[in-house]
Structure formats: C-alpha cells, structure tokens
Amino acid sequence: MKSAARTVFNSERRLGAGRIVRSGSQAGYREVAELAGEPHAVRTDLIGSTPAGDLAPDGETIACIVHITDLHVTDAQSPARFEFVNRFARDPRFRELLTMHRPQEMLNTRAISAMVRAINNVGTAPLTTTAVQLVAMTGDSIDNTQHNELTNFLALFDGGIVRPDSGAPGYDGVQTTNWRGDIYWKPDGDETGDLFQSALGFPRHPGLLEEATRQFESDGLSLPWLGCYGNHEEVCQGVGIVTPALADAMTRSRKPIDVPSGLDPDTAVEMFIDHPEHFMTGASVEVAPDPERRPISRSEFVDAHLKGGGHGFTRGSLDEGIAYYVHDMGLVRFITLDTVCDAGGADGSISVAQLSWLERRLEEVHASFRSRDGSRVKTGNPNRHVVVLSHHGHDSLSNPRGERRADELQELLLRFPNVVLWLNGHTHANRITPRADARRTHGFWEVTTGSIVDWPCQARLVEIFPTRGGQLAIGSTMLDHDGAGLAGLHRELAGNVPFNGFDSNRSGRPVDRNTILLLPHPF
C-alpha cells in the first residue's frame, strides 16, 4: 500500500538508544530515541588550513545525489542460509561468515520501501536547497545471490509487488517457535528457548511473521538510479562460491539446521568458500522447495537492470560480461567499478584490465593529468568532476584470493585531480577518509555509508558545490526514513542487536556523518 514518508535529515534530529523498555538477564532492550540534531562538521584535511572565506554555496550546484548501499534483500526461508553459524559469533575464526541471521531480517523489505519513499520526499537538500538528481546504489542489493531476491529488489527500486514470502505460503524458518535452537528471536513464542527474549529483553510480537510475509506494493524511486555489483550478488551469503551442488540444493527442500559432522573451526571459512554445500550435510529438516531461489550470474544481474531501464549498465556491459561502466550527468562523470572477487570470500579485488579501462575513462574527462612517470599530460578533453562508485573501499580491497591492488587503484585515482569523491559500502558502517596525493597538492574524499539492513539503517545525501571562498565542498547529511509501521520495528530491532546495534561503531563518529568536506577546486 502506498503512503507518504516524512524525510528526516540528521541535521534536524538524530536517532539513538533510548530508555530501556524491557530487561533480560544480560542486557536491556532499548527504544529508539530522538536526539538533538547534529550540525555539519567542517573537515579541512585536504586543504591543510582553515577554510578560505565563506562556505556558502556559490553559483550552480555541481551534483546532488543520495547514496544508499547494502540493502540485503533477503529470502529468510532459503535452504541455502546457514543461520546456525551464528552460534560461533564470539569465535574470531568464523568472523567472515557472520552475520548469517538477523532478528529483523523478515522486515527488511519494509525498511527499504520506507527509505525509498523518504528519498522520493527529500524535496531540497539542506545545504544548497537543490533537488536530488540521482540515487547511487553501491552493491549488496540482495543477500544470497538468489533470483527471487533480485526480483524483490527491483520491485522495491523500480516500483511493483514485493513478495517477502518464499516456498509454501507462510513463514517457515528459524524464527518459528518450534525451530531447534535458542539463538534466534522467535516473536510468536515466549522466553523459553529464545535467548533474544530471555537474555536481551527482546519483545514478544505474536502474528509478526504472518504480517511480514504478506506481499505489498513499493512506490519505487521517482529518481534515476545507478546499480552496482556486490559480493552478496555473486557468492553464497557473500562468501561461498556457488558450486553446481549448491546451486542444485538452493531450490530444493533440504534445510540444514546444524554444523557438519567433524567441522574444523580452523578451516571452516575456507571450507565454506570452496564448498559451501558441505554445510548442508549436517542435521536438516524439510521445507517447501522453490525454483525462484536459483542463483543468479553477473550477466543476469546486469540484464535484469537493463530490462528496467539500464540504471547505468549498457548493452555493451552485457555483451562484454562486465559490471563496470560510466554515467555522465552535467559536470560529473560517475564511474562504477566491479570489485567482486570471483574466487570467493567477502572482501574485494580489482583486476589489471579494469584498472586500464578506468585510466582511459579518467583521461576522457581531464584537460590535464599526471602520467605514470610524474610528468604533466595535457589533452583537448573537457573537464568533469569525477565520482567513483564501488561496493568495496580501499581498506576492504584486501581479498587474498584476488588481485590485491587497492594501493594501485588509489595511486591511479590520485593522478587525476578531477576525482573528488569515492562512494562505497560493504563495511555496514559510516566512515569518511581523506585520500591525499603524496605531494599534498590535492586529493579526494572516500565516503563509506552504513547499510539499510543493520543499524543505523540510513542513507546519505551528498551535495557537491563551489563555495564563495573559492573551494570545492562536498556536503554529507545522513538521512532516516520516518519509522512508520514495520520499518520502525526493523530499525528498533537492529539497534538492539549485540555488537551490531546501538553499542557498535556502525554509526561512525560525528565527523563520519554530517560534514562539509573541503578540497581545492580541481579546475
């Protein structure tokens, strides 16, 4: 059902942990509280001095976009999810496999739909009063490389019917009251066999799962948006290679509920990366099969976007089997990279071939740049500001199974002074990092935005504008949906998840949220 959603900037008010409304034996369950709005912190890391003159916008805004990432549209009833791994949450040897289950996951599509409505209702941006022009999505739109997840994601963003249920009608998964194991929140039950309720104070919510499985209509974004390929689009649970055996099991009825016999914790991650189907050999139950749970390929991901209007991808992307592209808008060139490691594992990599392609695309929008040997190259090309989009950022381009070229990528970007911003996700945390040229003559800002699936469940509005003082400014303002209905419960549950909620670093520091990021105007 369509409804309006109030758009809330963090400069107006911020959300955080409120009073304890229920107590468990280990922790209290808190409500989400409205806190005082957060002013924009001015960051001068890349200019090495105090701001030159007035920071007010001067002239036409260069770009006004919304950055959203890590939605994780989830088929929470899939046989190819291994929620039982969460019992090893405190064992660092399993870190790369977590999180396999979230108490809020059945409500995730409702939270995404609410954020879509909020983006549609932004109106004008807080610093420049400019209307939003574009939405940049930077990967992990889905959770488990499944076709039904992709279908729901595209319905959420393009508008259409969203079907959170899969298999037979009605919820059949780890959150039912009779499911073996006490590490799952079971809203229809009581504290018996539910550590979320007994230890953490999570509420009972009878009828929630029935309500959460009902289909609904998403408004879809009213703005153009760009897509991006992430590791959860490529590999099982964002980590394991989809082998033929796993692909077959994904659509069938055998649902594992316990670890394989004799699993060695020291080699568990490597086993899951190479042979995730081995994790289906332990104790199991029967669930309804569903052919729509089949795994997708990179080409199918691109093709699905093309059928919806492209969203940055082109027919050439599909023909070449690649998921990187350029999109020009006014004075800005957006360059979307594909940082997914096909060899498995969560972290990213980038190939020599893609770096070579990137260098050519950067040359096309620079009148002048620094060559590999340090000499200055002049071209007849017009200047554009460059915004790079990717799923992984510099620090997570560290997959040992792929080409570890994070520093090479950064050095390439720093040779081209028109690169002003790199937007990415993957870490599910807000973070802003200055990336300066070794000569300290220029640099760009790397801005990582937290996820929708985990606390603080936000998007980020980005404004690029010249200041009256003659510098370039990148304004960042965190954006919340209004929290109505199940979307609000989703956010409250996410805030109360141990190690990933209110008490985590997901929200980042104030200088990672509402900011004005300054740099010299590149041209």
The CATH superfamily turns out to be Metallo-dependent phosphatases
Structural class: alpha/beta
- CATH top-level class: Alpha Beta
Summarize the amount of helix as a percent range.
Answer: 10-25%
Low-confidence stretches: 1-5
CATH architecture: 4-Layer Sandwich
Topology (SSEs and partners):
Elements: E1 8-9, E2 13-23, E3 28-36, E4 41-43, E5 63-68, H1 108-120, E6 134-137, H2 147-158, E7 160-162, H3 195-198, H4 208-212, E8 216-218, E9 225-226, H5 231-234, H6 244-250, E10 254-256, H7 268-274, E11 284-286, H8 298-307, H9 315-320, E12 325-329, E13 332-336, H10 352-363, E14 368-370, E15 376-378, E16 385-389, H11 406-414, E17 419-424, E18 431-436, E19 443-448, E20 459-466, E21 471-480, H12 485-495, E22 515-520
Parallel strand pairs: 4-22, 5-6, 6-9, 13-16, 16-17, 17-19
Antiparallel strand pairs: 1-21, 2-3, 5-20, 7-8, 10-11, 12-13, 14-15, 18-19, 20-21, 21-22
Helix pairs in contact: 1-2, 1-12
Describe this structure in words.
Helix 1 (about 110-120) runs parallel beside helix 2 and helix 1 (about 110-120) packs across helix 12. Strands 1, 4, 5, 6, 9, 20, 21 and 22 form an 8-stranded mixed β-sheet that branches. Strands 12-13-16-17-19-18 form a 6-stranded mixed β-sheet, covered by helices on one side. The chain has a single domain (about 10-520), classed as 4-Layer Sandwich (Purple Acid Phosphatase, chain A, domain 2), CATH 3.60.21. With about 525 residues, it is of the alpha/beta class. The protein is globular, with a radius of gyration of 23 Å. The protein contains 12 helices and 22 strands.
